[in-house]
Specification:
Ubiquitin-like (UB roll), Hypothetical protein af1432, 29 helices, about 725 residues, Beta Polymerase, domain 2, single chain, globular, 20 strands
Amino acid sequence: MNLDELMEKAKTYLPPEKLALVENAYKYAQKAHEGQTRLSGEPYIEHPLQTAITLAALQLDASSLAAALLHDVPENCNIPIAEIEKKFGAEVARLVDGSTRLGKISWSVEDVARRESQAKNLRKMLVAMAEDIRVVFIKLADRLHNMQTLDVHSPEKQRSIAHETREIYAPLAHRLGIWELKWQLEDLSFRYMEPERYRFVARLVASRRTEREQFITQVIQILKEEFEKAGLHAEVSGRPKHIYSIFQKMEKYAAIGKHFDDIHDLLALRVLVSTVADCYNALGIIHNLWHPLPDEFDDHIANPKPNGYQSLHTTVLCLGTTALEVQIRTYEMHHIAEYGVAAHWRYKEGEKGDIRFEERISWLRQLIDWHREFSGAEEFLESVKTDIFNDQVFVYTPKGEIKDLPKGSTPLDFAYRVHTELGHFCIGTKVNGKLVPLNYQLKNGDVVEILTTRGGKGPSRDWLRPNLGYVNTSGAREKIRQFFKKQARAENIERGKELLDIEFKRIGIKTIDRDAVAKQFKYDNQDDFLAAIGYGGVSAHSIALKLAVQTETPRAVTETAKREMSTSSVSVLGVGDMLTRMAQCCQPVAGDPIIGYITRSQGVAIHRKDCTNIVHEKERERLVDVDWIGAEAVYPVNIQVEAWDRVGLVRDITSVVAEQKVNIASVTFSNRDDHDHTTTTLLTIETSGLPQLLHIMGKIEGVRGVISVSRVGSEETAPNVAARPESRLDKNPPKR
């Protein structure tokens, strides 16, 4: 362990006087950490040293390298920031202080109850980024070394840290365009979160490595000869595909019935040239040599990605019928693709700021402005995850101005991005001159025109329903919530009560103690709670979901899981191994509050506590306490779907359920009304528990023409069409 590797990397781009700062910081940190060791037993100084080496590979400035070496000194060695400032200057001290504050952040990404804390911490981190983005470079490098040395922790700790890394740090590296860090963080997270799948993919890739390497070597030689004939100077090399990205591609291909062998970009070449003109010349040579596949060409030079990535991508059939992906870019584009905004970093005294750098972090400046608009930390967290970490699309106003939005955004999201009032009074939209629905998902290059009226009543509450897909950005949702928050309190309370009743009725809960639910969600006053639901500040669906996950549910179902409840899934009076069966009258699933009923000849029947038979049971002495315990099983549940009748309705409903990898045991058409063209359908689906059931019901609600989705017991019949709930009035029938 020594300083040599760091100094070798740093001296390739730093002047001698700057190298002295780095060396002094190392010696100071080494002395401060003397005698301290990591859990692995290695000297503690190895961690800050490896963090600095990662940043040197990104060619960060001397102050960043010094701060990386010193970033754990205040916390672990009780040395005040003032002492570091005195020794190394205000700039290094500020970076160390920012890194120290970020180091205290605990994300708790798997703990739903602590999302508020997580959101506040994410806000602190992004504000620190806005003050000096080098703080986050240090944090990403610090996290990478922690992931590389994760073996010393328990499996539970490994999964927790890996989950946090995949949820927060890898997307952040992607948004900053730092591919070199992104792929390593993703692969390491995948390795610890899903070790069996990781090993499976790794073995699959390794099994044909020799064959692929021989093929790539042959292709490179052919291509080099062609470039030399054309007088084009180019560097050609094989490009490895990383484990996690291969896994994602396999999952995507499996969903459409394709095989591992169909993945084109497992075999890939990278061509580096000097100029943009050379990029297009190289593309022409390749297309003349081998046949390009249709719809497999992307020009990211003319249309760069939001994080600044530029390259030409093409897939060709070469040496027979082997598909090969080729990326073509300049050396500068390659440097930016690997190191992102770090490649644009300029911190020389007196030098003007890098305009491209400022453009590429404009989203961060915008985010800091947005956070003042959000009423709570959770809304801010939601905004970051949906509006910042997602891929983006670029669309145009009718005047030709470009607006960037998260992928999946709708015309309403666009309207609210332009101006709040434009969103509030939107009554329709045109995309590329044609009328489209408000939940149309925008695509790159769309020209969007918003149609408005000043005589309208403002936004619809339906715009806040996630399953309908009207708005998909947090900024738009928050502005709509603020609109309804200003409405009459009495109206919001009444609307909140209605939404809560509908949601609990939908999942099969017959009685609601609103006071108890309000207190559980930290509202002292029931009216405040209902008003929050009414104006959209709290989602009735999320309330039901959170109540469901409070009870431990079985793990994800496997292909070999039993199709009906096993006796090991329920304990009776704290004892397993008793004869039990699921009552067919109410069909409880994991997560439901349950109670046992001692039958005369069939052991203990398990009912939901609100089951009509239990509520009216006179022999109370035959009721016993029961509880769910961990088991791999699925449970049949009946759900009722009311919808406007149309061709393809059942196909669309069953497709939505199939996409969630859930089996449909039966489908029954229980009622049809020719007068108003509505139909009622009963489905029996096999679900792993209440959270999954709620998720599926929400997905079905999003199917065109569906009026309502509710859970019913097997002995219940669908209600008469004429007596359906008022929710039908909330949706207009489709045009026939």
